[in-house]
Amino acid sequence: MARSRTHTRRHPRSNPRGILSVRGGGFGFVQTDAGAYFIPESKMAGAFDGDLVEVAPLPPAGAKGKQPHQAGQGKVRACDQPAARIVRVVDRAHDTLLGRYEVAEPFGVVVPEDPRIPYDIFTMRADHPDVLDGSIVRVRITTFPSRNTAATGVVEEVVSAAGDEDGGVDLIVARHKLETEFSAGALAEAHAAVLDEEGALEAGYRDLRGRFALTIDPADARDFDDALSLERVSADGSQQAEDIPLDVRVVDGRGIKAAAWRLGVHIADVSYYVPWNSSLDLDARRRATSVYLVDRVIPMLPDELSGDLCSLRPDEVRRTMTADLYLDEGARLVGYALYPALIKSNARLSYEEAQALLEGTEGDASLVGRLEALSHLAKLRAAARQTAGGLDFDTVEAKVRLDADGHPTGIDLRQKTDATSLIEEAMILANETVARHLRAAKFPGIFRVHDKPSADSLAALVPVFQEFSWFKDIDQNRLVAGDPSALAQALECSRGRAEGELVATLLLRAMKRAVYSRDCEPHYGLASGAYTHFTSPIRRYPDLVVHRMLKAYLMRRPEKFDQEVAALPWIAEHASSMERVAEKAARESQELKMVEYMETEVGCAFSSVVSGVATYGVYVRLDNTAEGLVPLRCLGAEYFSYDPVLHRLTGQDTGAVYRLGQRLPVVLTAADPRSVRLDFRPVRVGH
After folding, report:
1. Which of 172, 265, 341, 416 has a CB 3.0–4.6 Å from the CB of 206, allowing a cystine?
2. Which residues of 489-517 are buried (b: 16+ CB within 10 A; e: fewer)?
3. Phi-psi bin for 478: left (phi > 0), alpha (psi -120 to 50), beta?
4. Which residues are within 8 A (CB) of 104 and not within 5 positions of it... i.e. 6 or more apart?
């Protein structure tokens, strides 16, 4: 009798897994180890944007196995990714959501603010009868949606009341769970803090109150945590012993006699007011950074410190940690001294005021002379850093201008100037000097580390750059290996050309993020072998830690020093994470107000550059940095093929090409602040 066969698999089939990225049109994409998959709106299976999902490929359809899909309301077009359905959600990205509360007795329906989550959350109205219709709330999800059931949840918090004009920024604060209130203990400690000049001098602080110092910051700065001073210490190359203390550390083989300038970098001594494990310290450690939103600052420290005792305001004595940096005539560092001091700032300038003094002839001659000397030294320092392999990307910072009621009135663009550069170069040199000092002493600290880009990331740029004639003069192998001189050469060769923005954008995207680390490793972007953050302890917790470590080296180690050292790895990791959160929140708040501002420009034409290319359209960035989407359906009534290597879409009928970095005149068709979205269409010839 023949034995019957079973068709049971020896091993269960393994479906690909990846993170779901949902688009505004309701469809999504999942990047897996097996490749990328397109997920039609009907195959989402209750998954949310950001969820880790398991997918199963759908049967091929269409020409050459490509999956047709509907992108918005336009014509069906070909998608290069195969289609799949979501089998199950492996791990949820959201346990709470923010949304608009709508009364629908007996329910309170929460409509998610994130347009990528198309599922309403049902709550019981009786549980929170005081919540007004239209309020923004945080809801905890108790049941996720399925094919047969709706999502349910419980209201945890009212983020903003109905009709609150600041609700959009409040929503960003709530979404990122940013702390806005200080603990009672921290407030009490901040309120009790005092300067105590005499106590500082008795404890060994040097008296620099007679030295001329100035601050240069943005016009709207809330705190001033760094000041500069500059004096000649040698007019003819001869040493002046009274100007150069005996404890200066020599870093140049020629000795301190080569010094021509003493650049003083004076940083607010926050560590005096915020001892380890105090209530102030615990609050600051959790926050890790101040957050600079479009209409407010969420400070790391209470205002009694950040806006007063630790702020280097003009004509007020303040405690500082000072780095005296001795430079020769070529702006090379030949010696330095690090110590706590008392200073009194003599002048407070905005960047615009400092730039005007540098460009004009009016103003106090002594102040103008100092600024000109600082700017001269900064240019020499920047040139030396570039020669050493430092990379300089021409970036533009946009800041939305608001009126007294928080309504956007314009967009200001901030670019590098001589005034901003002289501050930047002084801070970079101080940060490098402190990092090298701690490294040489083999003393613990937190360092700023920046790895070079991966070879794979740079190799992916070669096919794009090979289309340009100047690339033949660049060593391809050196560029792929991350040789900074090869990258700088690509930036320089393309600068001013039509493809210049494309090259800069691609190289910038290939860069890795700088992070905090207990280990002192190189900073690739600055071409620095040792780098830390020492210059902003009011707003960055790692800087505060560096001040404590430096004091522990210079003075007696505190009682809990070992405890502080043991916490350094966690602090570095946490600070890196919170830095990303703060940057994202700040960017989102600017984008929100930018979209609000652009509402009045719907129907207007703009010059733009293609800043992103995807299967569903192209992203464009205007000259004012506002960014939005040109949907695929607006590019033409034809099929488009997507080339992810060359970052371009090509029309199969007309051969029309849309590629990253391309100039594209567009018309703004919609601006939706609720979804923080701008939609554009190309300007047609003859229209």
Report:
1. 341
2. bbbebbeeeebbbbbbbbbeebbeebbbb
3. alpha
4. 125
Dihedral of CA 452/456/460/463: which sign?
Answer: positive
What are residue 168's phi and psi, to 5 degrees?
-65, -45
User: Can you point out the beta strands (E) in 219-276?
Assistant: 226-232, 249-250, 261-268
pLDDT tens-digit map of 238-270? 444 446 776 788 887 777 888 999 999 999 999
Q: What CA–CA distance (Å, rounded) separates 165 from 171? A: 11
Q: Which of 130-144, 202-216, 488-502 has the lowest mean pLDDT?
A: 488-502
Cα separation, 107 vs 82, in Å, equals 40
Cα angle, residue 34 at apex, residues 31 and 40 outer, rounded to 5°:
50
Least confident of 25-34, 96-105, 377-386, 450-459: 25-34
Q: Which residues in 234-252 are b (16+ Cβ under 10 Å) and which e?
A: beeeeeeeeebeeebeebb
* Residue for token pair 């347009």: 115
Report the distance separating Cα 482 and Cα 341, nearest Å: 42
Sheet hosting strand 648-651, strand order edge to edge: 640-643, 648-651, 657-659
How far separated are the first and last CA of the chain, in Å rounded?
82
3-state secondary structure of 554: helix
Nearest 5 degrees, angle CA 556-CA 559-CA 563?
Answer: 115
The model's pLDDT over 561-594, given as tens digits with 9 standing for 90+, comes to 999 999 999 999 999 999 999 999 999 999 999 9
Tokens 């740079």, residue?
458
Q: Which CATH number fits domain 96-164: 2.30.30.60, 1.20.120.910, 3.30.460.40, 2.40.50.700?
A: 2.40.50.700
pLDDT at 299 over 50: yes
Per residue in 597-610, pLDDT tens?
999 999 999 999 89
The CATH T-level fold of domain 602-682 is: OB fold (Dihydrolipoamide Acetyltransferase, E2P) (2.40.50)
Give me the phi and psi of 108, to 5 degrees please: -115, 110
Bridge partners of residue 214, in order along the sequence: 228, 347
Residue 146 and residue 89: Cα distance in Å, rounded?
A: 11
* Residue ranges covered by each domain of the chain: 17-91, 96-164, 184-449+518-588, 455-511, 602-682
pTM: 0.84
Q: Which pair of structure tokens corresponds to residue 267? A: 């940083």
Please, what sign has the CA dihedral across residues 496, 497, 501, 505? negative
